[in-house]
Amino acid sequence: MNKLSLEELISRVDEIPVFSQTVNRIIQITEDPKSTAKDLESEIMKDQGLTTKILRLANSSYYGVSRNIKSVSEATVLLGFQAIKSMVFASTVGKVMERELPGYALEREGLWRQSQMCAITARTLAKKIKFPKPDQVYTAGLLRDIGKVILDTYMKEQFELIVQEVELHNKTFLEVEAEVLGYNHSEVGARIADKWNLPQDLIEAIACHHNPEQATINPKMTAMIHIADGLMMMMGYNIGIDGLNYKFSDDTMTLLSIDESVLTEIMSEVADLIGDEGIFF
């Protein structure tokens, strides 16, 4: 059985490229305080597909804008630079995450829809507790399982054994991944995020979303991704095989100063959004 080390695996990842020049330029514009909505619009409109997707998401029930948004600049003014950046991430990684992942028992688009729902749940929670960067939390939620794509693509031979171990010993997929491979999908995802030069607290949220107590850079962001992941599993939304043995950390509730009533409110709000296909592009 050909088992790759984590370093070997990351070095082989050619189909998860560094973001295109256009996407990198968009990210730079959103992070430059001197940039204008027109600057952002002119760059995004170089990619007609991206423009269409952003306008579709901006007009979805997720953002709840009362009027019809007809241009990227209008969306930027109403929703903000960070929201547009999170939409660009969603559009870019959606192409990668829409494939079927048989190792995780996820059908085509299953991981993408699951990731989008986790991202939306995380952002809803961030807004609920008035966290200052809700759209960065959204991006972390969107990317928290990007490592699954890599493992399912490059480590197919190991998955039969991993699935057997999960089912026989009632262990989490995360535990068995580490036993069989020597690392897990969270670690792989964090390395991919690092390759993309994403912020360190976002990388940490991906790396520690199953073990939020290990977070030191931005524990609250990691806690929100962990809770969003858990809520999505509780709602039974595209859970895949690894969701069947999901362990929820109670410490995160204390850290965020929330209780079960808040979780219930969030699940209700997110459930209302599921019917809007606009959020899935």
Automatic annotation (TrEMBL):
UniProt KW Hydrolase keyword: yes
HDOD domain boundaries: 16-212
InterPro entries assigned: HD/PDEase_dom (IPR003607), HDIG_dom (IPR006675), HDOD (IPR013976), RNase_Y/CdgJ (IPR052340)
Alphabetical list of CDD domains matching this protein: HDc
Keywords for this protein: Hydrolase
Domain of life: Bacteria
Molecular function GO labels: hydrolase activity
Protein name in the entry: Hydrolase
